[in-house]
Amino acid sequence: MILAANAAVGVITETNAEKALEELRAYQADVATVLRNGCFSILPATELVPGDIVEVGVGCKVPADMRMVEMLSHQLRVDQAILTGESCSVAKELDSTSAMNAVYQDKTNILFSGTVVVAGRARAVVIGVGSNTAMGSIRDAMLRTEDEATPLKKKLDEFGTFLAKVIAGICILVWVVNIGHFRDPSHGGFLRGAIHYFKVAVALAVAAIPEGLPAVVTTCLALGTKRMARLNAIVRSLPSVETLGCTTVICSDKTGTLTTNMMSVSKVCVVRSVHQRPITDEYSISGTTFAPDGFIYDASENQLEFPPQSPCLLHIAMCSALCNESTLQYNPDKKSYEKIGESTEVALRVLVEKVGLPGFDSMPSALNMLTKHERASYCNHYWENQFRKISVLDFSRDRKMMSVLCSRKQQEIMFSKGAPESVMARCTHILCNDDGSSVPLTMDIRNELEARFQSFAGKDTLRCLALALKRMPEGQQSLSYADEANLTFIGLVGMLDPPRDEVHSAIHSCMSAGIRVIVVTGDNKNLYVGKLVRLSI
């Protein structure tokens, strides 16, 4: 019965492990836009071969490892968190790297299979498919199992060797001690007596061997494997369960492992009024996923019934919806909300939905009557229908900001978003939250905003963006970098990639067991370590 149960558990866990490994195929693209016979056509990704020219754009899953050959936009950014754990998208370029022994992060001219394009368009040549890709090498490494003796196996081997020596010594001693009885007449001779006591010694050895030990050990390992399987652990062999008992250090990836890999806006800072203290207002936003569910609270932790009645929050929603190239959608198969594009931009999309709309459309009851597919971007679509996009200045590393020119009722407005230090340096006015008026940005207010920015980025470990607007001359149809001056500051948003709910108990359990936890991340060490340390405490 023990052997049958062991076999059943082994088959089940091995099958589950193989299924988990096969899920890596979900990160492979299904189709690709390939240059064949002088024109681009859509073909199954499985038909790609090295040397093919492939075109990729926003939302495309890279079908193979490819080298960039042509840029079709100002920039190309790729989310390769699934491969490297980087929470920020990576800018790709045509120039090859000069680094020796380059790792994945150094190869900025390579598009890796399974990663997702979040901004821009480009063409690339296929250099690796299947198992010859970076993702394929991970799968091959997981499939290869090296036969290495586990600590339990070593202990059992040592115990077996020691027990064999002790039993052999005792048996020889028993046989030697009874040499005087070999000649006993009841045995029928010296030789028969020696054989009799040899049988006694062998019987003693057989009795001393713990026949039940292997069955007990196997049963314990099978129970441990079953318990780990319930916790979604990949277990390929029973002895690997025991190895966890000897763990002293755990190196864990951060993005998507300790965190949800779902960027969300958690705080907003706006200027209330220049005539009274405090100058700024701070709002907190609930909800840490891509679902458009959450509420906005003021500094006194009172929920805002109608957030769009606040002029700054209303203009933040406008700017977040229009100065945005991402997409938020609902996947009915997975029953979850998914992103296409930059995580920070999708976080702004979700904020727009939480702010709501002015007038009747902002009523929660009206929004809750929508289907999840309609609700995903209802408010964003409202603002996109209210304004007509005319021109866009894409994000660049030197400016660290993005701007879009929009028109509504014969009035042109430019919305901008970007790094707080870059946007605030270009602002000359601020939007007041009390009455919606625009007043000059004084040095005192600038210092107050910079202090709040430092608090968001340092103490609260948030990733920050500043939003601004500018009224443009009527009839303007294009933007230039010179237009990004004399802006009106709207507000500062702070977002985070929240830790998973189970991280607190997991880190606490590791610390209680004397296990050291090391977070492996490419982010700034102050950005998330403080958050995780507070969770562990």
UniProtKB/TrEMBL annotation:
Keyword Transmembrane attributed: yes
Subcellular location: Membrane
Molecular function terms from GO: ATP binding; ATP hydrolysis activity
Name of this chain's protein: P-type ATPase A domain-containing protein
Keyword Transmembrane helix among record annotations: yes
Keywords: Membrane, Transmembrane, Transmembrane helix
Domain P-type ATPase A: 28-142
GO CC term (a single one): membrane
Gene3D superfamilies: Calcium-transporting ATPase, cytoplasmic domain N (3.40.1110.10), Calcium-transporting ATPase, cytoplasmic transduction domain A (2.70.150.10), Calcium-transporting ATPase, transmembrane domain (1.20.1110.10), HAD superfamily/HAD-like (3.40.50.1000)
Species annotation: Aegilops tauschii subsp. strangulata
NCBIfam families named among the record's database cross-references: ATPase_P-type (TIGR01494)
